[in-house]
Automatic annotation (TrEMBL):
Domain Cytidyltransferase-like: 5-191
Known EC number: 2.7.7.18
Disulfide bond is among the record's keywords: no
GO terms assigned for molecular function: ATP binding; nicotinate-nucleotide adenylyltransferase activity
Protein species of origin: Candidatus Fischerbacteria bacterium RBG_13_37_8
Lineage: Bacteria, Candidatus Fischeribacteriota
UniProt-listed PANTHER family: NICOTINATE-NUCLEOTIDE ADENYLYLTRANSFERASE-RELATED (PTHR39321), PHOSPHOPANTETHEINE ADENYLYLTRANSFERASE (PTHR39321:SF3)
Matching HAMAP family: NaMN_adenylyltr
Source organism superkingdom: Bacteria
Protein name: Probable nicotinate-nucleotide adenylyltransferase
GO BP of this protein: NAD+ biosynthetic process
Function field: Catalyzes the reversible adenylation of nicotinate mononucleotide (NaMN) to nicotinic acid adenine dinucleotide (NaAD).
Keyword Transcription regulation among UniProt keywords: no
Amino acid sequence: MRIGIIGGSFNPVHSGHLHAAKFTMEQAELDEILFLPAFLPPHKPESVFISPYHRYAMLSIATQSQDHFKILTSELETSRICYTIDTIKTLQAHFKRHKGKLESPDLFFIMGSDAFLEIQTWKNYKELITLLYFIILERKGVSFSVLYNLPPLITKRYADNCATASIKSQKNIILLKGKMLTISSSHIRTRYKQGNDITRYIPKSVYNYIKKYHLYE
């Protein structure tokens, strides 16, 4: 089984998140996508966040029609800052306990090139990049060519494609080309506060939820 993981604050979830999930699932032949909402991401200011409950609710609404999209709430339930490496280790231990003699699933952490460029600031990143697969999606402003300026211990792990990627061969970081939507949650929040339309950036159900609970006003 091949499981993709998309972490983030989802503040709010938007069409870019959903497009990335669908695109990656198809291109990398993943069986399901786990959305991993953070209680409070380590690299973002606390002041910009609304209640974890609302962020989870919007994510649930946005993904409910997709059978292969699931939400992992472990970080929300801790009510504290969590680090990716700790969450991944906990998840892998969970699969190992519950799969018995069956082989544990391959995990693919999906992220944008802009976030991956900062991977060296992540907790225990040298160990993290050995634990699972990474799928990197090219974001505007950070081309894949820039990622080759990262240290050799990272770049040596770049795989040619999804088919040849292998953790055992230390080729577990996949630079997956494809047209991504240039949308950010911060841009959506700013537009909304300014009274501008945001319906083209988020599902209608999420927009209705924002209006109902007077979020981001």
